[in-house]
Amino acid sequence: MAALSTTGPAAVARPARSLSLTTRRSTHARAPAGRARTVRVAAQVRIQFELEGASPDVRVIGNHPALGNWDPAHGLRNGDFITLEDPGAMSLEYKWHNGSEYEMGGNRMVVLPDAADRDVTLALAVVDRLRAVPDVVYQPPVVQQQQAPPPAPAPVPTVEPMYKGQPAQYAGQSGYDGYQAPANITYHDHHDPYYDNDDHDNDNDVIDHSYGSYQAPAAHEAPAAYEAPTRSHDDASPGASIDDGAKRMQFVPVSAAGSDAGDRKPDGSGPPRWFREGVVYSIQTLGFCGCEGPPGSFSEGERLMKLLNEGWIEHLARLGCTVLYLGPLMRASHDLGHGYDTADYFQLDPRLGTVETLRAVVDACHLLGIRVIVDGVFNHTGRDHFAAQDVVRNGRSSPYWDWYRGARELPGGGAEIPGWEGHTGLPQLNHQNPEVRRHIMDCGRFWMSSEGANIDGWRLDVAHEVAPEFWREFSAACRDAKPDCVLLGELMHGDYNTHVGPGLLDSGTNYQLSKALWSSLNDHNYWELSHSYGRDKEMYGALTMLNFLGNHDQMRIHSRLNNPSAHYPLAAASMILGRGVPCLYYGDELGEQGKPGAPEGDLAMRRAIDLRDALANQNAKDIARCTAELVALRRSHEALRDADADQVPLAHTNETMAFARVARGGASAVVAFNNSDNSQRMTLPVGEKIGAHDGCEFEEPLANGQRLHVSGGQLHVELPPNGLRVFLRV
User: Fold this and answer.
1) Mean pLDDT, the chain, as a whole number?
2) pLDDT tens-digit map of 647-662
3) Rg of the chain, C-alpha, whole Å
4) Which of 77, 185, 45 is nearest to 637 (CA)?
5) 206 with 250: CB under 8 angstroms?
6) What are the start-end ranges of the H helices in 235-383?
7) Fewer beta carbons under 10 A from the terminal one: N or C of the chain?
8) What tens digit of pLDDT does each residue of 177-193 get?
9) CA atoms within 13 A on the CB side of 327
10) Secondary structure class of 399 (helix, strand, coil)
């Protein structure tokens, strides 16, 4: 028998695409934000409904006495619990009612499979809007009033210099000053007026971001569709350049790299060199373009051209980023519209443009030596996908009946398809079906072809949910189409070795390391970060993983850190200079803030940004310049540049930490951190750990190239408050 009880205040809302299911046992541990763990339910199930942004009149009603048997007068309010005794294997159907209308779309459903373990509490968070339209499963998009603009972002925090309070010989030094990079990445005068004060003027600045062995063609023609205000392309040999009246940057176009396998590991595994030595810049496309949400709320248009017309591609190049990762941008379904609800795998979403629009963006990126990967959502589709529509309408007689998992016929005809982990708008594909596999392989090849957009690879949504053998087939198909492509899997939990390896995916998102990069600073606990680095090396030392401080599902780093002005440079440096491929999330380099929850939900981390307005703020310029300096340092030295270069722990306390990076060719670098408000001294055993014995010298690029000598097999290092120092072995 079901019992109903009401708790006090509403529970804290959590990020969710449509419906998120989070398991809470005795420890009340939660699954990663916006995701769900598989739940096997025992003798008693307790469910709490969390209605994010709902009005007091909203109720949850459903097909159970505890849910009012569809009677709104007896529905549940935000924060209410229901307790189901001995539920067995069952499911609940439910939806919202706002006092006058039902929620649009089919019923929501949560499946509670049987199990014989402990009692379980589930928290169901729903963020869909209520709409005054009939309760139907499918219908054309409904034009709605434009949403009110989001509230103004919080003020950009001030970032203190990395060398604040340091000895006089360090004070005031730019991260570029006095440092001579290797010939393949040269910096002739290291001030960038784009990030410096407006009165700086130098017409002779040149940054050459070419890869050593890649040669540009004699001429490369810029895409005709590109017309950026106040900037122009120059196709002079040896590579393309940008001229903004103050700085000239030269690059080798991607076309010069050729179409070989991309210099992978000897066994053919791992990512190609361009990714292994790259720096990724991630954009959540629909939010970035200001059009995430039900498509009917937005007009069609080429919003993706914002990347070109507002100077974002040049911004990436100035930061030193070499890979652009674009979040989902294929045509989405009408009811959700966040991009993870694909309606057509072979069209760009009309809010963003057409296939030709994406092709123009990719061409412009390639001209500047920037590769492009896009989000492939191949675990599930949206409800507007042709196969899902056919199954819902025709039931078992549909030729696509076996395309989805768990479809069940309805008594009145048609069928219902349960959604991935309870998200009813995301029916999960059956990857055992050969037609499904062929459909996805065709998509993978299409977007990498010249007929598509000539992209360079894929970021694969919830890759851990799909069997490795499917990714093995997908990898073969993609490499056959483009030998130097990269396949990056979203791996939120489990053993990354299951999905990344020879013949499988090339890389994965390193969630197990991500938290420690910021929480070790908030807690002044570098033991945590040192342990996480060690665990990463022990478990995944043979893999090339993608490291990040935040993404579209997580709180922004400047909101996450307790002291962002002092600790953002340390967090960024631990990601950018450490082992693995670093990934910047758009706006973090500008000091953007954003927390999930409240009316915006996840959109708080996916706001549109006006780049020109952002860079008018000197604090944002300072943060961008700090980030660019760290990226430049990484790309200029072999031991830091190669994601697979070894990372050797040297020493750590709660407040200090140091590690060395050692390349396969023997080059080495040392990075030391201090997260406290006081100066700290470290003694680093470089002789024992990396073979740097007495007589060896280390150069400090962030301090005008001054040199330190190894004495007694050790480096003795003074660290400024909340500062870091980097030493390159001479």
Assistant:
1) 77
2) 999 999 999 999 999 9
3) 26
4) 185
5) yes
6) 273-276, 285-288, 306-309, 312-319, 355-367
7) N
8) 222 222 222 222 333 43
9) 22
10) coil
pLDDT tens digit string along 404-420?
A: 999 999 998 899 999 88
456 three-state secondary structure: coil
Give residue 443's pLDDT band: very low, low, confident or very high (50, 70, 90).
Answer: very high
- How far is the C-alpha of 251 from the C-alpha of 241, rounded, in Å? 6
User: How confident is the model at residue 109, as a pLDDT?
Assistant: 65
Instruction: Give the E-state strand segments of 467-615 in sequence order.
Output: 486-489, 507-508, 546-548, 581-585
Cite the beta strand spans of 171-237 per DSSP E: 186-188, 206-208, 232-234
Label residues 655-691 b or e (16+ Cβ within 10 Å = b).
Answer: bbbbbbbbbeeebbbbbbbbbbeeebebebbbbebbe
According to DSSP, residue 78 is labeled: T
Residue 630 tokens, joined: 């760290």
How far apart CA 662 and CA 638 sit, in angstroms, is: 9
| pLDDT at position 178 | 28
CB 572 within 8 A of CB 622: no
- Cα dihedral 359→365→368→370 (10° resolution): -130
pTM: 0.71
pLDDT digits over 229-254, tens only?
233 223 323 344 333 322 334 567 87
Would you state the torsion angle of the CA atoms of residues 316, 321, 324, 325, taken in this order, to the nearest 10 degrees? -120
Tokens 């049987």, located at residue = 114
Smallest CA-to-CA distance from 252 within 202, 218, 277 is with: 218
**Which residues does residue 126 pair with via DSSP β-bridges, in sequence order?**
19, 51
Residue 336 confidence (pLDDT): 84
**Residue 55 is encoded by which pair of tokens?**
């009005």
80: left (phi over 0), alpha (psi -120 to 50) or beta: beta
Diameter over CA atoms, the chain = 85
In the block, tokens 């392989």 appear at 441
CA distance 578 to 46: 43
Q: Where are the alpha helices (DSSP H) in 256-305?
A: 273-276, 285-288
**Which of 91-100, 289-298, 530-539 comes out lowest in average pLDDT?**
91-100
Q: What is the pLDDT of residue 678?
A: 96
- Of 382, 386, 288, give the one whose Cα is nearest residue 330: 382
Residue 403: what are its φ and ψ, rounded to 5°?
Answer: -80, -20
Q: Who's near 451: CB < 8 A, 6+ residues apart?
A: none
Q: Are 131 and 645 in contact (CB under 8 A)?
A: no
CB atoms under 10 Å from CB of 552, counted, come to 25
Instruction: Give the amino acid at 497.
Output: N
What is the torsion angle, in degrees rounded to the nearest 10, for the CA atoms of residue 656, residue 662, residue 668 and residue 669?
-30
pLDDT digits (tens, 9 = 90+) for 582-628: 999 999 999 999 988 767 777 888 899 999 999 999 999 999 999 99
% of the chain exceeding 90 in pLDDT: 58
- What tokens were used for 675? 């997260």
Q: How far apart are CA 637 and CA 703, in angstroms?
A: 16
CA-based nearest residue to 429, from 341, 338, 495? 341
CB atoms within 10 A of CB 362: 24
- pLDDT the model gives residue 458: 98
Beta strands in 287-422 (DSSP E): 323-326, 330-332, 342-348, 371-376, 408-409, 415-416, 419-420
**Cα–Cα distance between 584 and 569 in angstroms, integer?**
13
Contact 431, 465 (CB under 8 A): no
Between CA 372 and CA 448 the distance in angstroms is: 10
d(CA 606, CA 463): 22
Under the banding of pLDDT at 50, 70 and 90, the label for residue 268 is: confident
